[in-house]
Predict the structure.
Amino acid sequence: MLMIQFPDITFEAGKYVDEFVSFLANNLEVLFDFIFFITSRSISGLTDFLMIIPWWLFIVIIFLLGWYFKSLFSGVLYGLFIFLIGSFGLWEEMMITISIILTAVIICLIIGIPLGIAMAFNKWVSMILRPILDAMQTMPSFVYLIPAIFFFGLGNVSAIFATLIYSLPPVIRLTDLAIRGVDKEVVESAHSFGSSRWQTLSKVQLPQALPTIMAGVNQTTMMALAMVVIASMVGASGLGEQVLVSINRIDIALGFEAGISIVFLAIIIDRITNGIAEKVQRRGGNQ
Amino acid sequence: MSVQIQVKNVSKIFGSKPKSVIPMIKEGLSKEEILKKTNHTVGVYDATFDIQKGEVFVIMGLSGSGKSTLIRCFNLLNKPTDGSILIDGQDITKCSRDELKKVRQEKIAMVFQHFGLFSHRTILANVEYGLEIRNVPKEKRREIAMQNIETVGLKGYEDKYPDELSGGMQQRVGLARALTNDPDILLMDEPFSALDPLIRREMQLELLDIQERLQKTIIFITHDVNEAFRIGDRVAVMKDGHVEQVGTPEEIIASPANDYISEFIKDIDRSKVFQASHIMTKPNALVSIKDGINVAVKEMRENGISSVFVVDRSRRLQGIVTIDDAIQGIKEHKQLSDLIKKDITVVAEDEYINDLIPKALESSFPLAVVNEEQKLAGYILRVHVLSGLTSDDVTESEEYVH
């Protein structure tokens, strides 16, 4: 008897996950409603705020940021990029996209930095979190769009949820790495003066780790931006939605304009966060 | 002097179950046996010694000898696996977390090999760190920090960042930061090893200078024998976690406890360890300026010597008289004071032999050794200067000729 075919053993893992997700959705409705409320409010609040800013002022702000953190040329270039996106007629979409990214990144930092610190200090937390982070990063992003819809319905909040799962790992990992990477003698010297744990963390470890943490923030931001199009499949509006529309209509012109706008945003956000990281680096540790 | 720190049977084991190894140490198993049997590394093996208040206590050993592990036991950066460390009678190994914080904040401060400076803070902010975490008001801590920055000679650099300073200057910051806490005890973990030799020498002298002024108890780690013997009042030699010998540099050189230590100190430059007071002879013949020439001649005859030192009533050195001059003087009815030769070489008690060599070569008389009050403490024959360098036995021979 040659065993060619897989035996008739079935383990329906997916079914259990399905049941678990339904269970969560049914029993923790209040929690999800609360998260939904907060998140959607902050996105719309942020979008409204960005839309109040006169278009020229926004360009000036981007120019100044680019100038301060990179160079005069960069400032001019970034200002021009924003002007171009506006001239494509995608000003509002851009603002929505920026709001979604900003909200996602802020939530990422609020969750990610403490988790990263916990990982650095506790090997159990580290052991548990590590495989979860691996899964978050390797799981095809379409897969967790499904439970997102289950919990939050179609729309920006689901998009944020999906974006979070995808872009949270770098900030956690790099915070962990950064804290553990602080020079041992520097931490010892903080202890030797009788610092409490909190004093050591806040006055020495975090400032020393900041450059590396900033690198994590940069990566998280870029990954959030990368999710823009995929997130639009669960109903996120903004530039991603335009890309999706152009695919459906086979509209090359719109596809190009929306696509290049995302590229422009990516360049601007990457360079500016990078510039912030470099500015911090000059005074931080971990070199 | 009184005992400030008592180290009693301190062991530090690294591994998964350190406590389980303690019985083996009590049985006297060696470090290698323990490593083989249990896969635990013994960092410090049953160390016991006392440290006096106000002394510079050097712990010397090669890398891996456990010296850095041991020094970290004094402020519990390493918690000893067994044994106790009493600082002013308080067993710090049994301290609660708050008590330990207090000890670290008030009693004991540390200087690190690679400085351990906070690169994100200015020099001033680094130096005032110890006070900042004790919630000392800003004005006050700034004032104290500035004083200490001045003490170590870095005035004007307080707004710079550590990476803008040279290695030597960075370690000065480390020292100022430790001094700012006004600790009784200063732990120094190979503080000058990362510095180049010239700067190292300068820092050693400065440390001794500061020590003289502030009278701290200093525990100093080094792998450099010459450094250990130059600055240490007492030295502990460590090997494989064992404290092999504790003693003054002279004691260790004069009677090394075992072959390892003999080997270790073989390359030591004796001329930089032994001082004039170690090789000088107490004068058994002395003539007072009030005495006559006859007394001088008698003294020389009785002691079989050819010259004698002349002192005044309070034993202050006046000069030297030779037998030839004295006999000549008797014939010519001269006063003793007319015969005194003043061209003798006077050295201080704490001058190193190294510095005596050129003086001994130039002088035609024995070197006169005077104490701090300029009183005659002893003399050194020129030949003794050289024999002090080579012989293991530095007690002097009794001859008094030249």
In short: Chain B touches chain A through 31 residues (CB under 8 Å). Residues 391-402 of chain B have pLDDT under 50 and may be disordered. Residues 51-273 of chain B form a domain with the Rossmann fold fold (CATH 3.40.50.300).
